Amino acid sequence: MMEYGLLLKGVGSFYEVLTDAGDTVTCKARGAFRREGLVPTVGDRVGIERQERGYAQLATILPRKNVLIRPAVANVDQLMIVVSASVPPPDWMLLDRLIIAAEYLGIEPIPVLNKVDTADASIRNAFLNDYKAFDTLTVSAETGEGINRLNARLAGKVTCFAGQSAVGKSSILNRLLPDLHLETGGLSRKTDRGRHTTRHAELWPYLGGAVLDTPGFSLFETECLEQEQLDACYPEFRKASPCRFPGCMHVTEPDCGVKPLIDTGDLPAARYERYVEIAKDCQMRRKHRYD
Ligand SMILES: Nc1nc2c(ncn2[C@@H]2O[C@H](COP(=O)(O)OP(=O)(O)O)[C@@H](O)[C@H]2O)c(=O)[nH]1
Ligand SMILES: [Mg+2]
Ligand SMILES: [Zn+2]
Predict the structure, then answer these.
(1) What is the distance between the terminal CA atoms of the chain, rounded to a whole angstrom?
(2) Atom of ligand 1 nearest to the CA of 171
(3) Distance in angstroms (rounded) separating the CA atoms of residues 233 and 117
(4) From the CB of 84, is ligand 1 less than 6 Å away?
(5) Which atom of ligand 1 is the closest one to the Cα of 114?
(6) How far is Cα of residue 31 from the mean position of the Cα atoms in its chain?
(7) Is 167 in the pocket of ligand 1 (CB under 6 A)?
(8) Is the CB of 147 under 6 A from ligand 1?
(9) DSSP 83-105
(10) From the CB of 229, is ligand 1 less than 6 Å away?
């Protein structure tokens, strides 16, 4: 009899699956996956068959909604992109690039401002103004502020936590799941980085969904997007009237529909400035794609 569940982690040729009935079962993959070039991936919805003796068999992998690479994780619903309200100061460009990667993969990006207990007013204001097109969260892993609202957003979803080092990703996850005992803080950071390169992705079941720490997921796929694909990654642009020129980059072209959004306040100037840099970068990479 086939049972279905969520692939939580893989270690060597073994896989841990949380069944819909709530059991955690260690499985071995069917040999045929390798011949078919299919790699069971954390986040996969899988079918397993328990055996009379020995390990259960991971028998089928259901079609994936999306896959992140490095670390590999499938079927991600949302990406919580964490920035710090004090130290380290936010890398807004990284935030914008992670938003693009999420939008491109069909994952909901959720900018999260952590450390609001130590918030610098200018950082908090920039965050709230520049990301008002998103359903942002403001939290403190230290005091617990905002954690209830965070929980409401996590329930029933597969969520990855991303963002630069020391913004408090592990501290937030420790607050949600105290048994994890993830290492936090400055001293562990160096060893952290070394470990992340070899560490396997692992999903932790939480509130009917699951969470995952993704320290440095790759932005490779979004480095040379076509202009239209890049446009689709900016929710602010949805209010724009059509531009005169198809493929308009919204920089110096006449009769651009996007640029007026800066004056109406729908497109924050800082987001636009970073957008221009990203768009020019994409254009340059498209040109050199086949060099
Ligand atoms: N004041 C304050 N410090 C925090 C908060 N969250 C994390 N930190 C501190 O920031 C440092 C880095 O946190 P960590 O969770 O290791 O960040 P990570 O690298 O993103 O996983 C640690 O010293 C934490 O104690 C917070 O909400 N408020
Ligand atoms: Mg960490
Ligand atoms: Zn335009």
Answers:
(1) 52
(2) 15
(3) 31
(4) no
(5) 27
(6) 31
(7) yes
(8) no
(9) EESSSSPP-HHHHHHHHHHHHHT
(10) no
Cα–Cα distance for residue pair 272/262, rounded to 1 Å: 8
Say if ligand 1 is within 6 A of residue 175 CB.
no
User: What are 86's two structure tokens?
Assistant: 């004090």
> Per the structure block, which two tokens stand in for 123?
């950082």
Helical (H) or strand (E) element with 161:
strand 158-162
pTM: 0.92
Rounded to 5 degrees, what angle do the CA atoms 232, 235, 237 make?
75
Residue nearest to atom 9 of ligand 1 (CA): 168
Residue of 184, 196, 214 best suited for mutating to test ligand 1, as the one with most atoms within 8 Å of CB: 184
pLDDT at 74: 94
* Atom 2 of ligand 1, residue of closest alpha carbon: 115
Question: pLDDT 10s digit of each residue in the chain, 291 long?
Answer: 899 999 999 988 899 999 999 999 999 998 888 888 889 999 999 999 999 999 999 999 999 999 888 778 999 999 999 999 999 999 999 999 999 999 999 999 999 999 999 999 999 999 999 999 999 999 999 999 999 999 999 999 999 999 999 999 999 999 999 998 888 886 444 444 444 433 578 999 999 999 998 766 666 677 889 999 999 999 999 999 999 999 999 999 999 999 999 999 999 999 999 999 999 999 999 998 877
State the pLDDT at residue 248.
98
Where do the domains of the chain lie, and which CATH numbers do they carry?
2-61 (2.40.50.140), 67-213 (3.40.50.300), 223-287 (1.10.40.50)
CA of 18 to the centre of ligand 2 (A): 24
Structure tokens at 32: 């045929």
Say which ligand is closest to the CA of 116: 1
Note the Cα 151 to chain centre separation in Å: 17
